[in-house]
Amino acid sequence: MEERVNGSGSGRDVSLSPIPPLSLSICQNIPDTLLAVLVTGLLAATSADAAPLSMKQVNQAEWTAGKAGKGLAVGTPLMTRTQVLLDRAFFSPGIIDGRSGSNVKKALQMFQKANVLPVTGKLDQKVWSALAQDEAPALTTYALTQSDVKGPFVAKVPADLKKQAKMKRLAFTSPLELLSERFHMAPDLLRKLNPGVNFKKPGTPGMKIVVANVGGRKPEGKVAKIQVDTAGQTVRALDAEGKLIAFYPATVGSSDYPSPSGKLKVVAVAERPVFTYSAKLQYSKLKKGQVYKIAAGPNNPVGLVWIDLNKDGYGIHGTPEPAKISKAESHGCVRLTNWDAVELAGLIKPGVPVTFTDKTAKPAAKVAGKRQEKR
After folding, report:
1. Which of 52, 79, 163, 365 has the most crowded Cβ, counting Cβ within 10 A?
2. Whose CA is closest to 104, among 88, 128, 87?
3. CA distance 216 to 137
4. In whole angstroms, what is the distance from residue 215 CA to residue 164 CA?
5. What is the pLDDT at residue 292?
6. What is the pLDDT of residue 284?
7. What pTM does this model have?
């Protein structure tokens, strides 16, 4: 595994190669009764997704026994508020979508551990009492600016790297994508909170929309070391005494292209990196001498930032697909949401040690079936 990245602060390039899509067979050999339960659950989730959601519902949501915000529905009020509170406490749940899922469970587990609470990964009264000490509204209003409305945007981002290399920028494709990422939100949740807004043409600058209230905060303390849990798919930023400063869900390597083991260190940080796909890669399908340079931007294969490590081709970086964090596999690097990668990059300096561990080892069967991604 090698990668090459060019960008401010780094003289390296980052390279990767496409992996064929995983072919899955669905609904084969499922008993009729189980299938009926699954279909009923999905229909219920669809109905819940269509239900209205207001800023007042989310901001006033409170935990009560038996109502922990579980389920598939986008925008459950309690879970939406919980995710925002976790994000603001620097226990990142990944993308804020109002759903109860694996990344929320990881964030809750780490929050419980940091606050000396029973580690269950579940929302309960003690966890809620600790989280709700942050009394700022979970949702707020935001006035659109000229750049929010006008971009520049690109019509689409092709999956093919050769076609990407012909683009001048890997910008956002729409105001919806830009605003969703700025406020750490799933596009579906942003739409649900703003039912009257056409995000293809969201109106004139100054128009107000409802968004997650996640801006303007920075973790306290100085990051002295980073721990990457390869099995648990997480990243921890710690101070010199081992106290947790920030926690992030991550996509870390794969069985074919595992992440490094042991201790490395940060050597540079590249903002808005240029991605280079080269024929020199051992798994590349390019002919000798072929090189694709992919312009910088949030939809660049390595996102908005590259944290370079002292093992050639390995780093911690962003992603153009935040919803897939911890849901897919990489070619060996550590992938975070763009906003988490940018936050982490702002907390570190060259020389910070990065230790790869396997603290929460899982059976191989738990990994099987994940789709490998391009970084």
Report:
1. 79
2. 87
3. 14
4. 31
5. 83
6. 65
7. 0.82
